[in-house]
Amino acid sequence: MVPEWLHILSIVSLVLGLGSALWLAVDLSRHPQHMWIMNVVWPATALFGHVLALWGYYAYGRLAAEERVEAAGARDETQPHRRRTPFPASVGKGVAHCGAGCTLGDIVAESLVFLVPAVAVWAGWKSLFADKIFAIWVVDYVFAFSFGIAFQYFTIKPMRGLTVGEGLVEAIKADAASLTAWQVGMYGFMALAHFVIFAGLLGVELRSDSVEFWFMMQIAMLFGFATAYPVNWWLIRRGVKEAM
């Protein structure tokens, strides 16, 4: 049985995530980002990062607001987010950019499998995998990778003035390793939650129609952030991925 404290904590965390995402969406409608895709990235990051995402946005995200970038350009100055964002924070923004795509992809994938269980069968449940969770992870990866590459494409194509084909190739080069690292961290924690915490210690199934599942997903995304961070550091240092 799920302890009452865990149930309440799950609800509180999910409300904080949704509230933070809504708060940022409103603020971004008033102060849109220089790169439009970041208007999606920040609220998506807040879904799991809530307080941390709010801090990151107000500390470094607001520096890239369109109004501030244009004002700097009018004064012939370096853009404020490039001048005042330290490298570790720039890497963090890059990870959030990657992770936002993963987060939205995972949400869509988990919801799809719940609403259409046959999708898990198509992904290998009962034929390749005895446990449904592994088939779901296949679907998760496909959607997370697709969303993540799309996010990177809409960043890198206009930034470098590339064609559609060139933009797609560069987006895959820039984010394939990062996306995979994120999913590895996410899968690692969800495996712990699924097999050890819930099935082993609590003796209950961790289902995607429970608030506890989505609370575990919030934590899993933080693990994904942690595993993707060093990969993004390396990619940016190598010039494969743009600093943000």
TrEMBL record:
Domain DUF4396 as annotated: residue spans: 91-241
Organism superkingdom: Bacteria
Pfam family, one: DUF4396
Cited InterPro entries: DUF4396
Segments crossing the lipid bilayer: 6-24, 36-58, 134-156, 177-201, 213-236
Name of the molecule in the record: DUF4396 domain-containing protein
Record keywords: Membrane, Transmembrane, Transmembrane helix
Keyword Nucleotide-binding appears in the UniProt entry: no
